[in-house]
Amino acid sequence: MSIDPADLDRSGLRLDIDDSLPAGCVATVTLNRPQRRNAMTPAMWRGLAAIGAGLPGRVRVVVVRGAGPSFSAGIDLRMFSAEGVPGEDPLPRADDPGFEQWIAACQEGFTWLRDPRIVSVAVVRGHAIGAGCQLALSCDLRLLADDARLCIKEPALGLVPDLTGTKPLVDILGLPRALELCLTGRSMDAREAGELGLAELVVPAADLDGAVDDLVAGLLTADADAARATKELLTQAQGHTLDQQAAAERSSQAALQRARLRR
Ligand code: CAA
Question: Which residues constitute the domain of residue 250?
């Protein structure tokens, strides 16, 4: 599937693909509605899904960032008003038989970031609220500027977080802290996010771009096939017993090395 830059632009997204690095190709997805703090709409989520579906196979690292001072202020709150967002379909009603299917389509904008063929990195400056926070949580790694603030706002607005953020939240934080964060709706600063494991790295805002370059270069030092197989293994590990995981390691190693012998 090809990705039309004009369609992306209309949905508030930009995609840049950098083939210049000798170690591998890097895609940068930018939420590009800075005047609204990168507030998101269902069209933006469909655009993210289209990027995931159409991403060239040579891409090894995907960097997700926001233009301007915030990563994302979450859903465009005008979606909840009678006027809505110009050019956007209104939100479906919950008693519409297609309601859950509609959410599933929105979730596709978030799930592809876990694909083992890529490593995804959220680069967060300023606020990541609601859907914006769930997008950062959907990435494999998070790199935060020291002015970053994360907030799960949905329950305060009468919603549940339904854009695939609850699993990484509990996987990383455990149930008690995840519950406390979701139900209080409090904003967590970058220092606390780093201490709790929600960020792999917290750096001064002025050093953010350099830190992204260093992290990407580091990730690309791994052999591409080994990186993919290792991400698959690590992703399965939490749901496996030690015996199951040891068996998965054996079969992954065998498949990787047999593929190498065939080359
Ligand atoms: N939707 C629509 N417009 C938004 C917006 C949002 N979520 N967030 C910010 N904007 C707009 C503001 O209305 C303002 O527009 P004008 O210039 O036309 O007045 C512009 O962006 C700049 O906003 P601020 O002046 O408020 O910027 P700031 O830097 O001082 O504050 C902010 C930034 C803390 C993110 C603040 O704007 C804010 O709290 N926004 C609302 C956040 C929110 O509650 N989001 C919903 C999350 S829940 C969710 O996402 C649910 C889901 O998935 C379904």
Answer: 224-261
* Residues 229 and 109 occupy one common structural domain: no
Which CATH number characterizes residue 120's domain? 3.90.226.10
Ligand 1 pocket: which residues have CB below 6 Å? 36-37, 39, 69-70, 73-78, 127, 129-131, 153-154, 157, 159, 163
Q: How confident is the model at residue 24 (pLDDT cuts 50, 70, 90)?
A: confident
**CA–CA separation, 60 and 39 (whole Å):** 27
Residues 6+ apart with CB under 8 A from 155: 161, 182, 183, 185
In tens, the pLDDT along 161-180 reads 999 999 999 999 999 999 99
Beta bridge partners of 28: 16, 63
Nearest alpha carbon, ligand 1 atom 38: 73
The pLDDT-based confidence of 3 (bands split at 50, 70, 90) is confident
CA atoms within 13 A on the CB side of 249: 9
Q: Cα Rg for the chain, rounded, in angstroms? A: 19
Q: Any idea how long the chain is?
A: 263
Nearest to 162 by CA among 233, 208, 105: 105
Tokens of 213: 């370059």
H helices present in the chain, as ranges: 5-10, 42-54, 99-111, 131-138, 166-173, 175-184, 190-195, 208-219, 224-237, 242-262
Give me the number of domains the chain comprises: 2
Instruction: Indicate whether 171 and 242 sit together in one domain.
Output: no
Quick one: 43 and 153 in the same domain?
Answer: yes
Please report the atom of ligand 1 found closest to the CA of residue 127.
Answer: 35
